[in-house]
Design brief:
It contains 13 helices and 2 strands. It is globular. It has one domain. The two termini are about 30 Å apart. Strands 1-2 form a two-stranded antiparallel ribbon. α3 packs across α4, α4 runs antiparallel to α12 and α12 crosses α13. Helices cover about 65% and strands about 0% of the residues. It is mainly α and about 300 residues long.
């Protein structure tokens, strides 16, 4: 997939309808009143019914983790496992707050109605609603309890503005933010294998949860791409490094774990190759809605 190359105008409407079909098959029927999907709920029911925890002494101290999660920047001298846990707890904080703000606003304005199940923007809202829950479950695999903390006031103000912007503008900013975010999830997945590979079953649960998020986010990127013209895509490419730097300002634990230069190089590589994949080149389940190949969709039996 050419990540930041615009689709021909004739393909955009077709992508909209194919993407809706994919979201329904992957997630099941949406319930906008309760803000959930049928298949996603089955997935989490299986997660709850089959909890997986690391054995032995805790690899991250809960007191240290909770104290640092409440700070604006991590304490010096934290080990990589603690930094990984803090990154996992905080990386989706702005997006989660923004999604909940946007859902509340749309609900107040009466924008969810009987045809909302055919609107990708509304369906994406519900998908995003699950990501913090997945990250929470990943941390529970390490025996950690994650607290909820709001993003910084500056980030809240930016999100409020984006939610109210015309889509012609907000789609570019959201696409840039989604690309920066998926790079973060990919880096955390690779780092988890390095840090927690000594116990395969808990690692497999973490991998399963992160891959579900990455699959969702790449789907969102591909949909947003389909909604933008060539000129808008050019502006998005120019915007991406600036949005990523702002993203990293809100996540000092990510900088502490990976280094700012490593993160920005990952963005540069993505721009240079104009490609993004789930993990080790895995095909995206959305592909089979555009190509005659069979790919596995969301399983209700998590690792």
């Amino acid at each position: 997939m050419h990540l930041l190359t615009a689709l021909p105008p004739s393909d955009r409407a077709d992508h909209w309808h194919r993407y809706v079909k994919y979201l329904h098959e992957r997630n099941g029927a949406p319930d906008f009143t309760r803000q959930r999907f049928v298949e996603r709920e089955r997935y989490f029911n299986n997660i709850d019914a089959k909890p997986v925890r690391r054995s032995g002494p805790p690899v991250v101290d809960q007191v240290v983790f909770s104290r640092n999660q409440a700070l604006s920047a991590p304490e010096p001298g934290l080990d990589d496992k603690t930094l990984w846990a803090l990154c996992t707890a905080n990386i989706n904080r702005v997006e989660d707050w923004g999604v909940r703000y946007g859902i509340a606003l749309k609900t107040k304005q009466g924008l969810y109605h009987e045809t909302s199940d055919q609107d990708p923007y509304h369906l994406i809202d519900l998908e995003e609603n699950y990501h913090t829950r997945m990250l929470r479950d990943a941390l529970e695999t390490l025996g950690l309890r994650m607290d909820d903390h709001p993003p910084r006031p500056r980030s809240q103000a930016l999100v409020r503005a984006m939610v109210r912007m015309p889509r012609a503008v907000s789609n570019m900013m959201i696409l840039a933010a989604e690309v920066g975010g998926v790079v973060g999830f990919q880096l955390l997945l690779v780092k988890a294998r390095e840090l927690f590979g000594d116990q395969p079953e808990p690692l497999a649960r973490i991998e399963s949860l992160f891959k579900e998020i990455i699959i969702d986010e790449i789907g969102h990127i591909r949909f947003l791409r389909s909604q933008l013209s060539s000129a808008q895509m050019m502006l998005t490419r120019l915007m991406l490094p600036m949005v990523t730097r702002s993203f990293l300002q809100d996540l000092p634990e990510v900088v502490a774990l990976f280094g700012r230069d490593t993160y920005l190089r990952a963005i540069d590589d993505l721009l240079a190759h104009n490609e993004i994949a789930i993990d080790d080149g895995d095909a995206h389940p959305l592909d089979r809605f555009f190509h005659p190949i069979q790919q596995q969709h969301l399983s209700t039996s998590p690792a």
